[in-house]
Amino acid sequence: MNYKESVQIMKKELSGYFTTPIAYIVITVFLVITGWFFFSTFFLYNQAELRGFFQLLPLVLSFVVPAVTMRLFSEEKHSGSFEILMTLPVSARDVVLGKLLAGAAFVAIMLAPTLFYAFSAALVGSLDPGPVIGGYLGALLLGLAFSAIGVFASSLTKNQIVAFIIGLIICLVMTLADKFLFFLPSPLLNAVEYIGADFHFRNFSRGIIDSRDILYFLSVAAIAFIGTVRLLEERR
Amino acid sequence: MKRPSIDFKGLKERLRATVIEAADERNQWLFSIVIIVLANLVGLFLYFRVDLTANNAYSLSRVSEKTVSSLEEPLTIKVFFSNDLPAPYNAVSRYLADLLEEYSQRGNRNFRYEFVDVEKNKDAAADFGVHPVQIREIKNDRVSARNAYMGIAVVHGDLIETIPSITEPEGVEYRITTLMRKMNGKIDSLLKLDRPVMVTLYASSNLPIPGMQNLAEKVRAVVQKTNARNYGKLEYRHVDPLADRAALDLADTYGLPRLKWPAFAGMDGRPVVPGDGMLGIVLEHDGRFETVQILARTVLGQYAVGGLEDLESRINGALDNLISINPRVGYITGHGERDMHNQRDGAATFRELVADMYELKTIDLSKEDIPADVRTIVINGPRSRYADEELFKIDQFLMKGRSALFFVDSFAEIQSEGQNMFMREPVVLPVMTGIEKLLEHYGITVNRDIVLDEKCYQANLSGMGEQSLYFAPMIGSEGLSEKYVITKYLKKIVFLKSSSLSLAAEGRSGTRPEALVSSSDRSWLMKERISFMPWSMAPPNASQMGKHVLAAVFAGDFASYFAEREAPAPKGGAATGPVATDTIVRRTVKPARIIVVGTSEITTPSVIDKEGKTPNAVLVHNMIDFLSGNDDIPEMRSKGLELNPLRDSSDGTKLALKVFNIVLLPLLVVGAGLVVWKRRSTRRKRIMAEFATEVPGE
User: Which residues of chain B lie closer than 8 angstroms to A219, CB-CB?
Assistant: First the structure.
């Protein structure tokens, strides 16, 4: 695997986001939604912590990340540049990795302004930094996993809207999986709970780093990555 | 018989082919996914967890982990919490959920917990003994009170116990874990019982008091319910002393109320014949008994049957005491020590405080030895002299590597009796018990003085306004040792009428005592004329002020007080045969632990509560935990979610923060976008302008 090529592709995709209005619109919408939901209850809860914000993230990112990643392959396929990309001397893995890293980096950049939430909380109370660090680490892993799913969805179709809807459905199912446990017979409970992204993210949001949660997010990203590479190689 | 043969060669070939096929590039993706799934399965059992919270709020202590991972019978925690709790109670609810999740992570397959929808299951909550509690709610800038469910029930085997209200996060883990441990111990004790516990209702059928109707049936029903929750180890019977006159004499034995009445006209106008009778419930097993009182007085001062509404929990409590689930702590008596049954200024509250983990057993050293199963003894404010033989028993108990807690008063206040007794100042007399010389040998001298401190409790005395009670030093974290778990987690405590302690330098008896609690450096000593009247003491010059030790601890090896002295002759006389033993253990056989406190006032209800909520109660409980070897318990008791309430900030600040984060932050991003767009369009225009002349028609 050639990381140089992947980094090149990542840079190209990232600059694509920021030289067009897409990045600014998505980040603005994200900040308005999270800011509104977090700060409307922040003073009511009266606790110097960011848990309210982190708890929103799985659901909000389920919408935002597929919207960011939907164009990564669909657009190339739609405009015809996909064929050119495939004839270039880069492997499918490099291409997918580059696009996946671009998606994840975008999520990281999008989360950066929310550090002001932490400063605000520290300004009016004594903020415990541990859970905040844990929460951001979890958010990055969540962003990576959802980006991988978004990239996979984007590689399935040349229609961006279809790619968005597929990505959204997969992310939503994973976020809400453990909310519908009461429908399930007990032997399935633990398995479905383990699949739930929110279930794993909750630990991060309260300041607990569990190796199983890290392994889960990395596994989700890896499986989606492998799936995308496989799809591209088949088409080649 | 022909044994089935295994074709190892063929199996190996097939395995090899499978691996080669999997390693084939086309199938590599499938191979990778299998590896990922396997890694996740392995990760379920091999994992690590790091708690990033400031005080490790979500990490269970070792005691809790051990308890929850070694459950031998199914244990379910049912949580009855209202959904719409206001702050800060909502944080308690969330913390409890997180903590239970931690228990679940660490627990074995016997542990479960569930949140019960309490609004739909109010009857279930009541059945488990969880009732709504009153909480404060601030709505529209007004404080109002409302009822909410904030309790849990623990079902372990047949047993059911409740924690009726959890309104603060501090000590939640401690309460849950000690309850689990207690239930574990109770199951063991119950299953070991070879004979049932006899529950006898002594109720004279002729008692002319309200509530006697169907009393026997009501009590039977409660006992049956309790019995079903105690492995069927209870047996009920009803004794009517009217029919069995001999039973009346048992009233004194059991300490049950015996009532007498003359002829009088009842409420319904019918004449009541004179008589006598008794009322109460007795639980008996193996020669021991516990009583449950059911006689109460109404608001009009009349006697009536009472306390039936929580009879089940009271019978349960009596049963716990009867089968002694908790380890025993010896409480030395016979020298005017604080009375374990005195609620007013005795040690009754102290006994109730430690009862969640320990059973206090009274020991009269003049009559008996310290039982072998007692690991810790408490000597609480003795007033008269200990005989050498008694001191010898204490010394030798310590030499075995056991522990002792001494609350030593240098002075006793005697309230004068007779006319104007409340007007007169109590007489303060020095106390000599002999304990001092034992302690001095161990390296801690209780001085004949009282520590007064400028940093003290402020009381509002009638007619005198706010007064500094210098004899009640307030001790902050600077006066509390950080080395020992006893005081490490405390923030502020109060001491009362305490003498100062002098600690011997190293080498005296091998171990160096250390200060556990000290007064502030603005304290001084009252030596000659001791009086606790607030006006009789005034702060001296700063040069006479300094820090004084109020409580000390030492743990380690040391020499016996009797090592170089003659041991007192045992009561039964010396052995008569030619074979004699050296009856003195001259040095500790393993490290012992001693705590000495310069006052016994801190064990009275004026500064401790039986629920263990006041810092002083925590201090006293921690002392017993430390001495009993339960070093993990104080940490667990102190632990809770560090509630981080926001500082009081003005509405303007709140609005500014909201506006910045909800409106300005997104606007900044929009601004950045516009800047980029502007720069790009300028650049485009510049390039266009540069090449426009070369493009024909432009």
Answer: 36-37, 39-40
Q: What is the ipTM of this complex?
A: 0.88
Q: What pLDDT, on a 0 to 100 scale, did the predictor assign at position B264?
A: 84
- Rounded to whole angstroms, the Cα distance separating A230 from A70 reads 18
Residue in chain A closest to B91 (alpha carbons) equals A45
Alpha-carbon gap, residue B507 to B438, rounded angstroms? 17
* B49–A209 C-beta distance less than 8 A: yes
- How close, in Å, is residue A204 to chain B by CA atoms? 9
Determine whether B280 is exposed, middle or buried from the number of CB atoms within 10 Å of its CB (0-12, 13-18, 19+).
buried
Amino acid at B82: S
pLDDT at residue number B144: 80
Backbone angles phi, psi at B443, to 5 degrees: 115, 5
DSSP 8-state code for residue B369: P
Q: What are the tens digits of pLDDT across the range B356-386?
A: 889 899 999 999 889 888 999 999 999 999 9
By Cβ distance, the residue of A18, A38, A125 closest to B646 is A125
**The model's pTM:** 0.67
| Single-letter code of the amino acid located at B347 | A
Cα separation values, A76 from A70, A162, A229, B259, Å: 11, 15, 16, 98
Rounded to an integer, the average pLDDT of B524-534 is 81
Quick one: how far is CA B578 from the chain centroid? 52
Per-residue pLDDT tens over the stretch B431-475: 999 999 999 999 999 999 999 999 998 888 777 777 888 999 999
Q: Which residues of B touch A182 (CB under 8 A)?
A: none
How far apart (Å, rounded) are the C-alpha atoms in residues B505 and B484? 19
CA neighbor of A68 nearest in space, from A204, A185, A157, A167: A167
Give the full edge-to-edge strand order of the sheet including B150-156. Answer: B111-115, B75-81, B150-156, B159-163
Q: Are B158 and B229 in contact (CB under 8 A)?
A: yes
B403-407 and B376-380 strand pairing = parallel
B286: left (phi over 0), alpha (psi -120 to 50) or beta: left
Determine how many CB atoms are found less than 10 A away from the CB of residue B339. Answer: 17
Helix (H, G, I), strand (E, B) or coil at A79: helix
**What whole-number distance in Å separates Cα of residue B586 and Cα of residue B588?**
7
- Say whether B330 sits in a helix, a strand or coil: strand
| Tokens matching residue B592 | 């012992």
Contacts for B58 with CB less than 8 Å, ≥ 6 apart:
A206, A207, A208, B51, B98, B99, B102
Q: Span B82-103, mean pLDDT?
A: 82
Looking at B3-77, list the stretches that DSSP marks H as alpha helix, in order from N- to C-terminal side.
8-23, 28-43, 62-69
With vertex at residue B674, the alpha carbon angle to CA B673 and CA B678, rounded to the nearest 5 degrees, is 120
Whether A57 contacts A201, CB under 8 Å: yes
Q: Return the structure tokens found at A216.
A: 């889960």
DSSP per position, B417-472: -STTTTTSPPEEEE---SHHHHHHHHTEEE-SSEEEESSEEEEEETTTEEEEEEEE
- Residue B89: enclosing H or E segment and its boundaries? helix B89-106
